[in-house]
Specification:
The chain has helices spanning 27-33, 38-50, 66-74, 103-117, 136-148, 162-175, 198-205, 236-239, 248-265, 269-278, 293-300, 309-319, 330-333; strands at residues 3-5, 12-14, 16-19, 55-57, 83-88, 122-127, 152-158, 180-186, 208-212, 283-288. It is of the alpha/beta class and 344 residues long. Helix 2 packs across helix 3 and helix 2 (38-50) packs parallel to helix 11. It is globular. The mean pLDDT is 93. It comes from Dokdonella fugitiva.
Length: 344
């Protein structure tokens, strides 16, 4: 397993991390993802560690905390062998302060997560979303206090706009507080919006991408084909409404290209889609999920080899939208590539 620095920090993470959204199976969304119990989680952790994958990602809202609890039980007695990444900000209770990135909510959320995880520290903590109703100074200073208290080691964000992240980094720099080194972001062959603003920001500011849903919310598994109905066992039946929008024609172009490269390489479609991501700028780690051991082992096969430049170019072309820069000012900036080139 290859390890990379997480952004511009000294912290190294495996290029593949394991997402524990399948642990617990509570609620419509997470029930569609999976319902792994403690025994199943222990086995999946075993497989990950045997492959050198040591980072496990969760969040307080995953199955209403059950994901963190099951992860904590699965790593009990081997905390020193794993890296834990988790998140908070979304509503986690009925109270007026059970949501957001206020000092009140973050302190309570971290303490609750530590209890569920059975740990006294979190390796990487990320805000799950931007809270526009809490001053950025309050949020960033609170996280810095938690770092200084030893409860958190590194900080990141998720689902932020470019200005959200840049203003937060500027605030941290101005006060000498701990800054964000990770951006847990949606990025896939059928969802390349990350490249327009967040990737250039990551390059400039040293923020590494932790990629979630690298298979386009379950659409790049190899089971979806042009002119065929959605498979009966697809998780999309229960979760499509929660996921990112998809251009069907772009999806089919990408799947066609993946099929061709799979035939050339003998690799699976998910392996190729993940390997493409690992060759993109700023990507520190790709978060993979699995309902069972076989699915996990398949995804682990995405590392240890690389697509050729020609294969990468084929996927780039197939996944490119008809209008490469659909929003202003991106289409305008594309005309000034001489001094303001796109990142990829």
């Amino acid at each position: 397993m290859e390890y990379r620095h997480l952004g511009r920090s000294g912290f190294k993470v495996p290029v593949l991390s394991f997402g524990t959204g399948t642990f617990g199976g509570e609620g419509k969304l997470f029930g569609a993802w999976g319902n792994t119990d403690v025994a199943g989680a222990k086995r999946l952790v075993d497989v990950c560690l045997d492959a050198g994958l040591t980072m496990f990602d969760s969040a307080d809202v995953y199955s209403s905390g059950a994901s963190e609890s099951i992860l904590g039980a699965a790593i009990k007695g081997r905390r020193d062998k794993v890296l834990i990444s988790t998140k908070a900000t979304f509503r986690s209770g009925d109270g007026p302060n059970d949501v957001g990135s206020s000092r009140f909510h973050l302190v309570r959320a971290i303490d609750a997560a530590l209890q569920r995880l059975g740990s006294d520290y979190i390796d990487l903590f990320q805000l799950h979303g931007f809270d526009a109703k809490t001053p950025i100074e309050e949020t960033v200073s609170t996280l810095d206090d938690l770092v200084r208290a030893g409860k958190i080691r590194y900080l990141g964000v998720s689902n932020f706009s470019g200005w959200h992240l840049m203003k937060s980094l500027a605030t941290a720099d101005r006060h000498g507080w701990s800054r964000y080194v990770a951006n847990q972001t949606y990025y896939s062959l059928i969802g390349r919006d990350y490249e327009w603003e967040l990737m250039p920001l990551g390059i400039d500011q040293g923020v590494g991408a932790m990629v979630w849903s690298p298979l386009g919310w379950g659409r790049l598994t190899g089971k979806i084909r042009r002119g065929r109905p959605l498979p009966e066992n697809s998780r999309l039946h229960g979760s499509a409404e929660f996921g990112p929008p998809v251009d069907d024609e772009q999806l089919y172009r990408v799947v066609d290209a993946l099929d061709e490269i799979a035939a050339d390489t003998g690799r699976t479609i998910p392996q190729i889609a993940i390997n493409w991501l690992l060759q993109r700028p700023t990507v520190s780690s790709v978060i993979i999920g699995a309902r069972d051991e076989e699915q996990l082992k398949q995804n682990l096969g995405a590392v240890g080899w690389n697509l050729t430049p020609e294969q990468v170019a084929r996927l780039d072309e197939a996944s490119r939208k008809t209008t490469a820069y659909p929003y202003y000012p991106y289409w305008h900036q594309a005309g000034f590539a001489e001094r303001n080139p796109p990142p990829v």
